[in-house]
Amino acid sequence: MSEVNSTNPLLDLLTLGGRARQAKSADELAFLLVNDSKQLLPYRQSVFWGAKQGVIALSGVIQPEKNAPYVQSMDRLCRYLNATYASAKILTADELNEEAAADWLEWLPNFVMWLPIGQPADDPEQATGLLIAADMSWTQSSCTIMQEWMQIWTFAWGKFQRKKKHALGLLHWLQDPKWKQKPLHHRPKFILAVLLVAATFFPVRMSVLAQSEIVAAEPTVIRVPLDGVFGQFLVKPNQSVKKGDPLFEMDQTALTGRLDIAESELRTTEAEYRQKAAESLVEGKTNTDISSLAGKVEQKQAELAYLQSLLSRSIIKAPSNGVAVFDNAAEWLGKPVQTGERVLRLANLNHLEIESWLSVSDAIPIQAGDHVTFYPAASPFSSVAATVRYMSFDATSRPEGNYAYRIRATLSPEETGHLGLKGTAKISTTWVPFVYWAARKPLAVIRQTLGL
């Protein structure tokens, strides 16, 4: 048996290794393997084969034809060699079974070198190999050089396989017909996919955030009882008062002047009445003016009583216990006011609520009894629990220029709050899948924008 050796195997190996690392695609790398490996040892034919793809590349051919008899014969032969030999081997046809030997003798010369490239133990479908056929055998040193070339080439090939694997992703892996036959610990992608799908349907509370404030639940509104000029406040802002305590008074200058005039007119009218009554007794006759003066006296007395009642009403007193809630007192001094104009509120600190304003874009179905968690702006590490009492049907214009729905929530019995404390409320409603919770707002924006 004659043998042939390469003249400069190490130099050729370095040259091929550099070209393999510079290859731009997997097809270019496969072409390099089957055609340019001749620089390391002589051969007539070579076949690059994969367990999943079959014949990937042939020497002297740009693109193998899968249905060609030669390609099909090489596929059967390589599958036999891959299953029989786990390491590099120089073979003759006498060492094969009858079917494999028949394929060999029909298409190949006398000597064949089989070089397994990759045989992953966890996935036999990823096994690949190189078949080289020649009219003369090779030395063992040639076989060693070729194995070293295979390691260099395999490293470059793995780079493209990893890219392809990442590009195809989980869908490509699930299309593997044998994935169900693999042990569970060999299916991490499947487990991850199941967990991701399950996570999208994990139930979460539908919730929205709204600007909120702690307010009195049912405050007593104190209004102006009569037209006039505002006098002065008799309490300070946020001062606690009891029932009957004076809150503020109207300017009494005009009322006092009218009252003095009414008293003077009453005294004058009474004097005239007494004079006419005395004259009628002396003359012994009835004076017709007496009845008219008596009516005027009653009229003046009624006017005086009315003015006295107005004067007493000009000092407004608290109808119940509470805290006087109003703004800057200086803005009211000397201000003309009308009957029914609101001046302040009396709030019961033991009966507080959370008032929230939910924007129209964030509006979701909210029912009485839904849970509310209030996060005060002044205390970011604390929260207050409450329960929705009602939500308004109509949106109201806000000072910020937008429209929002008013929501009132009752504090839980064990919770306490500070009147006027502002913050953000998280309103939680029904349970929904996580995917709906995450996609609701984007889908709403898309639908409003595109009109779908």
Automatic annotation (TrEMBL):
<dbReference type="InterPro" id="IPR050465">
    <property type="entry name" value="UPF0194_transport"/>
</dbReference>
<keyword id="KW-0175">Coiled coil</keyword>
<protein>
    <submittedName>
        <fullName>HlyD family efflux transporter periplasmic adaptor subunit</fullName>
    </submittedName>
</protein>
